[in-house]
Specification:
heterodimer; A: mainly alpha; B: about 190 residues; mainly beta; Lipocalin; eleven-stranded antiparallel sheet; 2 helices; binds protoporphyrin IX containing FE
Chain lengths: ~180, ~190
Amino acid sequence: MNKKTEAAPDSWDMVTCGLHWISAIWVTGLLGLGLVMVNLVAASGPKFELYQLHKSWGFVFGIVLIARLVWKLFVQRPKALGAGVLHKAGVANQNVMLVMLLVLVVSGYALASFSIIPIPIQILGWNVPALLSSDMVMEQRATAVHHVIAFALIILVFAHSGAALFHHFVLKDRTLARMLKKSS
Amino acid sequence: MLKRHLPIYGLVAVLTLSAAAGRSNWTIDPKKTRISFAVDATGWPKTVGVFHDFDGNISVDFEKPKQSRVTFKVRTGSVDVGSDMLASLIKGSAFFNTDKHPEATFVSTGIEKTSAKTVRVTGNMTLLGVTHSESFDVLVETGLADKGRLGYKATGAFDRSKYGMTTGIPVIADVVALEITTEQYEQKN
Ligand code: HEM
């Protein structure tokens, strides 16, 4: 474990790499599932099942996200491979995405919990308690937040992956490589 | 999946008992009977469901149509909405509460002719143990009678809140549309 006072390492640690790629797959899945279930599936039964799936996986993702945020407190960023405004924007984008993910988990839980229809989030047969009491107006607000942040996140994810590919194929530096493997 | 279970046992006996003068023995064909409902919701497609397990009895008095009788008994646990997950929510205490109230029934109390091909059937509907009078418009497909068959299509709507089923109102509509299509054939014995 690196302390902030120590010299910046060359690479990301294995735990950060692992959490990063698990999140990448998980978030892509939740974004895709969310868009498909809301906009493309018209039959009530299948739509319901996809919503339940999204709620369960979204909630469990919240646990992964908390682990990731806690871990982030204890590790140091590797040496910067860039400088200037674009570099600062890139780092800021990463932090904003983490905040957005937290907002998505919280607003997702909130909209499900505020619902006047008692449909629990289920994890392996366990019903996640709905701690917020039914409120139609608050449910609509939480849904609006979830919707806007989800679409904003999609844009930032494209910017983030585009930047990573730009580093790899155009700048030909180790930005992408060091998130994939330890430095040699 | 729910197993299709369409009992007609006892129906013949019931029909025979009620076979007064002019009353003919017609039994409903469960394979050609479909009991369906539709409920709308805000930001959600209509949920359409069918029941697979029911008994029905239509006793037609051709001389005194008013004395015809219609009864239906539906096992609400047999509801099919295209998803077992959604069906178990509907069967649960928030909606059908099938553990406590396994059946919904309809027993006609009056039938009036509304046109050459239509009748209006009024009767007592019991849901969640609560009984109210409801009316259904029925289209009678007499063309089938040549082949010893009669077809019916009954449509109607009721407010589920009257029966104490209030979950989700107004996000999920209060009004439930019902549609029953069935065919009867003459008993030959
Ligand atoms: C506790 C966690 C979560 C719950 C309970 C949850 C629940 C929901 C629900 C109920 C909807 C449907 C909203 C509507 O009817 O418009 C939805 C939509 C959506 N969710 Fe989540 N969600 C959670 C986490 C997430 C996460 C972490 C992401 C992304 C990483 C995500 C992405 C989406 C997307 C893209 C949509 C579709 C938005 C739209 O088209 O309006 N959700 N979510």
